[in-house]
Description:
Order of helices and strands: EEEEHEEEHHEEEEHHHHHEHHEHH
Shape: globular
CATH topology of the largest domain: Transferase(Phosphotransferase), domain 1
Radius of gyration: 34 Å
Largest sheet: 6 strands, antiparallel
Number of domains: 2
CATH class of the largest domain: Mainly Alpha
Number of helices: 12
Amino acid sequence: MSHPQVPRTLGIVDPLLGKELDGRYRVLEKVGEGAMSAVYLADQIDGGGRVAIKVLHDHLVRDADQKERFEREARALFGLEHPHILHVHDFGVFNGLPYLVMELLDGVTLDAYVEEAPPDPETGLAIARQVLDGLAFAHKQGVLHRDLKTENVFVSRAADGTQSIRLLDFGLVKFVDDDRWGSGGKALTAFGEVFGTPAYMSPEQATGSPVGAPSDVYSMGVVMFELLTGQWPFMEESRVDMFRAHLMKQVPRVADVRPDLEVRFELEQLLQRAMAKDPKQRFADAGAMLAALDAIPRPRTRLRSAAGAGAQPLGPPPPVPQALGTPAAGAHEPTWVPGAPLPGRRPIPRWLPIAIAGGTLAIVAIVVAVILLASLT
Length: 377
């Protein structure tokens, strides 16, 4: 099992190590830690096997907002039973500390997976599809994630060798279906409050505006871009510059960041739409984005080195707007040579040039005669 290593402080013993939580779980060791909680490896005392237990930090128990966030995450995960969302077995309180009992996963988070060995493009899209599948289910149930990023996606390997993806950490979850989830009490984020992770934030998150499912779609676009290119669409030095980029900068094309990778026009279009500045121009939710991804013909990507010289383009070229009066691409354009009638016009009768020349000479003769008569008088 791979988890971030937690430095041990000399002389300080974790009070939970070796403890039995509610007579059901024996805590073995700490395997991970974040700003809000710590994760422990534990045995089920009844012989049910090992589990992971997430415990809210004791100094946050007295923070009503943080405690309610933790409890909301428990509610969300309990209500979202899906193959690509982390499964929660139990929830309880031990000595005043809320805890979540979760399935034990063997693998790494997606950010570590990409950093260690970037996946080939089609594998990256297969991973993205599983994340989208889980996120689409959450959206359908009236749940927004609001902190979607590669750190909150777990990559594990199933018994048959295939990769299995789990969406993690619903600590910033928002319920938008009151009939299913209830009103949820007071709002935990006020208008103007910025929350989330800067590299993956939608423009509305960056400004503290209200968010909906399209905000998760934007973050998912960033995750897909990272899976295809190995980097975020915006690589900025500071938090402020990152916010400004999400608000004002054009999302680069995959080819601009990774010239060795050819992607279908439809895939490039999907990424641009997912990361549109205006939420109304994005996919309405993860389900719509998933449907668009599934509709793209295979193969969706190709390494240029593998294509070889003279290889046909990957899919049809993007449509080019035609100027008014310009023939459509592929239309027959007749060739004109001197002496031949102009294309699209009726041929000129042979007698017409002679008649014009004769008429011109007659007019000139009359003008000359008039001038001579005038001079004689």
